[in-house]
Design goal:
Blueprint (H helix, E strand, L loop, with lengths): L31 H22 L5 H8 L3 H4 L1 H13 L3 H8 L1 H20 L4 H16 L1 H12 L5 H30 L9 H14 L15 H20 L9 H23 L13 H30 L5 H18 L3 H7 L2 H17 L14 H12 L2 H9 L7 H41 L5 H15 L6 H44 L15
Helix pairs in contact: 1-8, 1-9, 1-10, 4-7, 4-11, 5-6, 6-7, 6-10, 8-9, 8-19, 9-13, 9-14, 9-15, 9-18, 11-12, 11-19, 13-14, 13-18, 13-19, 13-21, 14-17, 16-17, 16-18, 16-21, 19-21, 20-21
């Protein structure tokens, strides 16, 4: 749509602080200053998203380092996600009150500061607090980078900016466990929290010299949707905690989860009702009634489900079933990230020649195919067997996000771009949180189902079962176990572990199938959007 090609002056009513000096829309080319600002913003988005996943492969090491158990250590990841998902919808409002420049530079600096603070924590409460603050200050960097693309780049160059943002959103979570695993295995878990310092320092320096200085509008504090802010923060925090901790605590079998769920439902219901009637809402939810933005956001929710869900599934499978360490897991995941660095820069050219909806649908379809390729796993299915599916997945992800964002955000009016950016990024991250929780639960339930089925066949009355136990008993007797009764007991335990491991493999296979189905839904949603009307949208007419 031509409505996206606009100057920074057009944003004055919505953004008090213009992000950077925008090139005139008629020139068709952004200035060097604008590109430096956009590139710096992408560094921030990359680092913020990287830190969602960078601790996952190293969680056991961190838990040991701060002296907490596995059950509590998951809050190390949860607290970061809560901070991030709460601040993303607030970004547009904060940038109008305190200026785009102050919020972006200030939050980036504090993001690095609290990241370093995480490395020096010695107990779980301190780690939870530091990670929460790290997520809060890093969270604004994601929608702000997204907003810069649509507010500062001419329409013809927006696909390039979206491709840069795609690298942050899809490459960062894929490479996060790789970086975290390598640093943890070779230099200690504390080092994963220092990786933010140098990139953030570079980012802050670049933004300091390229973003325009603008006055604050503290008067907007009086007009703030404070009821909406409060209900949103409480609701999203509670929902995130339910999603992250539910599977571990047996969902609604836990009074704690039940209470959190009630708080989340009540708070979010009040929030939505408030946003629909208040004169100046925190989030302009009515934007979702626009066909392309609404369906594009729905597609992004399903995509977030699959993107973050797959990043959870693969390390979990390799760790639980194949007993890979953090560095080995990172090496396997690298092949979902590295090819994207080569492919994503080519996407803007494709968007100039083909309908962006079809490019996105093709990418989502390839992502779905990669998931279905993992539905026939066996006990021997390990890192090498994931190579081809991971390459297919990398190609699919590379083709997906930039076209999807162009179709979705390209449909909104210029003045609504910052608000739409907050909604879109929040919903994608929320989809990721839901995906991780749902897939973890499916793995658990399907493992129990297959264990019961297989267990019915492992009957001591069957000759082949008794023969197998005898073989394993003899093995233990020949390897240091002198007591025949003890050897026989260990043989039964070993057989039970084999059954459990096989059931776990089948459970993961079923879960990858669910992932593929969700991606199909995402593809359908993007095809239901309206055809883009310009080159930036990737219209097939050009």
């Amino acid at each position: 749509m031509s409505s996206l090609a606009f100057s920074s002056q057009a944003l004055a009513p919505r953004i008090a602080a213009k992000p950077a000096a925008a090139a005139p829309a008629s020139s068709g080319r952004a200035s060097l200053t604008t590109w430096i600002a956009v590139f710096a913003a992408m560094i921030g988005a990359f680092m913020a998203i990287l830190n969602i996943q960078i601790t996952n492969a190293s969680l056991l090491n961190i838990e040991g380092g701060i002296g907490t158990g596995v059950d509590n250590g998951s809050w190390i990841s949860t607290s970061y996600l809560i901070g991030e998902i709460v601040v993303i919808p607030l970004t547009d409002y904060l940038s109008r009150v305190f200026s785009f420049r102050r919020i972006m530079i200030g939050h980036a600096a504090l993001f690095a500061l609290f990241s370093v603070a995480c490395a020096f924590t010695t107990d779980l409460p301190s780690m939870i607090a530091m990670r929460g603050l790290q997520g809060y200050f890093g969270g604004v960097l994601i929608p702000m980078a997204f907003t810069l693309v649509f507010t500062k780049l001419p329409k013809a160059q927006q696909p390039i900016g979206l491709a840069m943002f795609s690298i942050a959103v899809t490459f960062a979570p894929a490479i996060g466990p790789t970086i975290g695993g390598y640093l943890t295995e070779n230099y200690g878990w504390q080092t994963i929290f220092f990786v933010n310092v140098v990139p953030t320092a570079v980012m802050v320096t670049m933004l300091y010299f390229t973003l325009e200085r603008q006055p604050m509008q503290l008067g907007l504090l009086k007009e703030g949707d404070w009821f909406g802010i409060a209900t949103m923060a409480i609701g999203l925090s509670s929902l995130q905690a339910v999603l992250e901790e539910g599977n571990k605590d047996d969902w609604f079998g836990s009074p704690f989860i039940v209470k959190l769920a009630i708080v989340a439902i009540v708070s979010l219901t009040l929030f939505v009702a408030n946003e629909l009637v208040v004169e100046k809402p925190l989030l302009r939810l009515r934007l979702l009634t626009q066909r392309s933005f609404g369906m594009g956001t729905l597609s992004a929710v399903f995509l977030g489900f699959a993107l973050f869900g797959s990043i959870y599934l693969l390390p979990a499978y390799l760790g639980q079933v194949q007993r890979y360490n953090a560095e080995q897991i990172g090496a396997v995941l690298a092949w979902t990230g590295l090819p994207q660095l080569l492919l994503i820069p080519l996407v803007p050219k494709l968007m100039q020649r083909f309908d962006a909806r079809y490019i996105a649908a093709t990418g989502i379809g390839l992502f779905a195919v990669s998931a279905f390729m993992n539905t026939t796993m066996s006990l021997d299915y390990s890192g090498d067997q994931f190579f081809i599916p991971n390459i297919v997945r990398a190609i699919g992800q590379a083709l997906t996000l930039a076209p999807l964002s162009a179709v979705s955000l390209g449909s909104v009016a210029p003045l609504d771009a910052p608000a739409a950016s907050g909604i879109s990024n929040m919903m994608r991250n929320l989809g990721g949180a839901i995906g991780t929780a749902v897939l973890a639960t499916i793995v658990t339930k399907r493992e129990q189902f297959h264990s019961n089925i297989i267990g019915q066949s492992v009957d001591l009355g069957r000759e082949e079962v008794r023969s197998r136990i005898a073989e394993v008993t003899n093995y233990f007797l020949s390897h240091g176990v002198s007591d025949p009764a003890a050897a026989h007991h260990q043989a039964i335990i070993a057989l039970g572990n084999i059954v459990k491991r096989q059931a776990l493999v089948l459970g993961y296979s079923d879960t990858f199938a669910v992932l593929g189905v969700v991606l199909i839904l995402s593809g359908i949603a993007i095809l239901l959007t309206k055809k883009p009307a310009s080159a930036a949208g990737g219209s097939g007419a050009h």
